[in-house]
Amino acid sequence: MEFCSKKKENLTEVDKIEATQDTGKAKNQGDRWTFVAVLPQSGFIHTTHSSERTLARAQVFVAEIKEKSDGHAPIFHSDCWFYEQALQDNYCTYQDVPYSGRGRAAHPKQIINKNLSYVQVHKKRNDKGKIEEISTRIVLGDETKILAVFHQANRCKTVNTDYVESRNGKYRKDNARLISKTLCHSKKAVFHDAHIKFLTQVFNYTRTVDTLKVLQHPEAKKFEPKYQHRTPAMAEKIIDRPITLKELLCTRPKGSS
Predict the structure, then answer these.
(1) What gap in Å lies between CA 243 and CA 202, rounded to an integer?
(2) Is there a contact between 88 and 112 (Cβ–Cβ < 8 Å)?
């Protein structure tokens, strides 16, 4: 599973009634980040979470991923950021430490899930922001097992963040709120977040992806369908056909957030 975060700057100070618990700043003041988790094999956007870019919010984001999955720890790969602590805090158990008889009782010992695997992609940039070098490092997990999973994969054969970055590019293309230095900036966080959630469902359920198409009729004649074009949700076997925008707006698809 790939994940990263994208930023939208300059939410205006329109509604200052409610303040965030993390910083005490106004609800619609400052930058707004969106955490995105993508399943590389299908391109399905598993989870999004819009908030400030802090460790506390990253922990909430990973908790949402765990809640929406079967609870098992998949292989995570992301850009170089502090997801390591958020993953460890969610995929772990706590064991009581016996009291020694002196002083205060020790805090429970944190035991990290042995199946948790996490790989980071580090991009070195020059002064102009151009990427000069890309390197990877295994933060958690067994290197042999991790490389074996990538080797057996159908689409994502190497450790990278290409699929989630591709989704981020589509968010920016279709949502002017995310473009830097634009007059279309969000004045309220609630509308900013709602637009993100709507586009997420469009990408998952409505738009087909060429790389996911399946050959059905090799001998198809001209103007006859040769491939079954699939959406990421179809690749995940959540739906059996693309959902129209009208259906998306009037119904709640299975598995939607």
Answers:
(1) 9
(2) yes
Does 35 fall in a domain?
yes
CB-facing half-sphere around the CA of 229: CA atoms within 13 A? 9
* pLDDT tens track for 208-254: 999 899 998 888 888 888 999 999 999 999 999 999 999 988 876 55
Residue-wise DSSP of 176-194: GGGSSS-TT--SSHHHHHH
Domain residue limits at 28:
2-186
pTM: 0.80
Q: What angle do CA 172, 174, 180 make, to 5 degrees?
A: 35
Q: Which of 66-70, 161-165, 183-187, 229-233 has maximum average pLDDT?
A: 229-233
Which of helix, strand or coil describes residue 114? Answer: coil
CA 30 to chain centre: 22
Residue 87 lies in a domain: yes
